[in-house]
């Protein structure tokens, strides 16, 4: 019995999806034109599919799980579950208007024509706020619409904002934040759920590891108290004596986002020779 996972065949999610499965220790032969592959060392079958088709495959139970952008799940709605946020392909779905427009509030959109690939998301956002707009659905290059007179405004994915900038648009409302997630079919069987649990366990240890760094440093013994008070660590730091008398080696784990601030504090408190190493897996 295999669990069936859908990943994007080509596009933004493809590479990172394969990478995270690989980091979970799952070996997949992925020939370029293959539509299906079986993992060599885990009960997993990979289906390479069009991004926009994946939600329906999940709903129908043709696949058990998928790696997909949250934004697409919101748009397609329904019964698909999310078991884990994966931390990549971060973006937002936003409304944007021509740069030259004066924008004060949502009222701006009343009666306006809006081009979007996410009509349900926009419709729901407006319905909840009492705005009636005319939605025009297009599947790509949405940002060009106002420039060619197809619409007054747009709603699309924004990440760096450079596509908006190039098209003389400005972001005025954020509807939702999105990242890649591991999604589940409502029809997944108990037997396959048990395999999913094993996969999620591995994913969590990979995601934790990505978020943290293993840090080693040398500290004079009379500064140990001060230094260890700064360290967050999983429990408490490991302190080992160095061959040189009066010195210790201190080991700990630090979140990569708070890392630089902590390093500065550690240096001022007397830590020296600070080494920072990546962590491959982290099981809590
Ligand atoms: N500029 C971006 N930055 C970060 N993430 C993005 C960006 N654009 C899209 N994404 C995320 O990646 C997912 C896949 O995007 P991609 O452009 O590869 O496919 P698509 O154009 O949305 O869909 P399809 O494969 O159906 O044409 C999106 O659903 C979204 O979650
Ligand atoms: O804010 P930015 O960093 O500029 O990213 C946003 C752009 O990225 C996506 O397009 P993509 O490149 O995936 O092209 P597509 O329209 O063909 O999907 C999205 O549809 C936006 O157009
Ligand atoms: Mg795209």
TrEMBL record:
An annotated GO cellular component: cytoplasm
Domain (Histidine biosynthesis HisG C-terminal) ranges: 209-281
Pathway: Amino-acid biosynthesis; L-histidine biosynthesis; L-histidine from 5-phospho-alpha-D-ribose 1-diphosphate: step 1/9
SUPFAM superfamilies on file: GlnB-like, Periplasmic binding protein-like II
Pfam families, sorted: HisG, HisG_C
Required co-factors: Mg(2+)
Regulation acting on activity, per entry: Feedback inhibited by histidine.
Record's catalysed reaction(s): 1-(5-phospho-beta-D-ribosyl)-ATP + diphosphate = 5-phospho-alpha-D-ribose 1-diphosphate + ATP
Gene Ontology terms, MF aspect: ATP binding; ATP phosphoribosyltransferase activity; magnesium ion binding
Main location: cytoplasm
Segments forming domain ATP phosphoribosyltransferase catalytic: 50-204
Keyword Transcription: no
Alphabetical keyword list: Amino-acid biosynthesis, ATP-binding, Cytoplasm, Glycosyltransferase, Histidine biosynthesis, Magnesium, Metal-binding, Nucleotide-binding, Transferase
Keyword Coiled coil: no
GO biological process entries: L-histidine biosynthetic process
Record function comment: Catalyzes the condensation of ATP and 5-phosphoribose 1-diphosphate to form N'-(5'-phosphoribosyl)-ATP (PR-ATP). Has a crucial role in the pathway because the rate of histidine biosynthesis seems to be controlled primarily by regulation of HisG enzymatic activity.
Family note: Belongs to the ATP phosphoribosyltransferase family. Long subfamily.
Protein name (Swiss-Prot/TrEMBL): ATP phosphoribosyltransferase
Taxonomic source organism: Flagellimonas lutaonensis
Lineage of origin: Bacteria, Pseudomonadati, Bacteroidota, Flavobacteriia, Flavobacteriales
């Amino acid at each position: 019995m295999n669990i069936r996972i859908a990943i994007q065949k080509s596009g933004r999610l493809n590479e990172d999806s394969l990478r995270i499965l690989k980091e979970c220790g799952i070996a997949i032969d992925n020939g370029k034109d293959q539509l299906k592959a079986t993992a060599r060392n885990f009960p997993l079958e990979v289906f390479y599919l069009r991004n926009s088709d994946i939600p329906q495959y999940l709903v129908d139970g043709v696949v058990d799980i998928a790696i997909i952008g949250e934004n697409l799940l919101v748009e397609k709605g329904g019964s698909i579950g999310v078991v884990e946020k994966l931390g990549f392909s971060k973006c937002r779905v936003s409304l944007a208007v021509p740069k030259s427009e004066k924008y004060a509030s949502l009222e701006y959109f009343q009666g306006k024509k809006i081009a979007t690939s996410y009509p349900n998301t926009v419709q729901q956002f407006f319905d909840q706020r009492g705005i009636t707009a005319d939605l025009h659905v297009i599947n790509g290059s949405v940002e060009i619409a106002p420039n060619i007179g197809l619409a007054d405004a747009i709603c699309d994915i924004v990440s760096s904002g450079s596509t908006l900038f190039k098209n003389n648009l400005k972001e005025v409302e954020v509807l939702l934040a999105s990242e890649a997630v591991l999604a589940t079919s409502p029809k997944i069987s108990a037997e396959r759920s048990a395999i999913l649990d094993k996969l999620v366990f591995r994913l969590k240890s990979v995601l934790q590891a990505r978020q943290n760094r293993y840090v080693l440093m040398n500290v004079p013994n009379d500064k140990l108290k001060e230094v260890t008070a700064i360290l967050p660590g999983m429990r408490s730091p490991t302190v080992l004596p160095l061959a040189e008398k009066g010195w210790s080696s201190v080991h700990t784990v630090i979140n990569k986002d708070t890392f630089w601030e902590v390093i500065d504090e550690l240096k001022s408190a007397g830590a020296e020779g600070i080494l920072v190493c990546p962590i491959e897996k982290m099981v809590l």
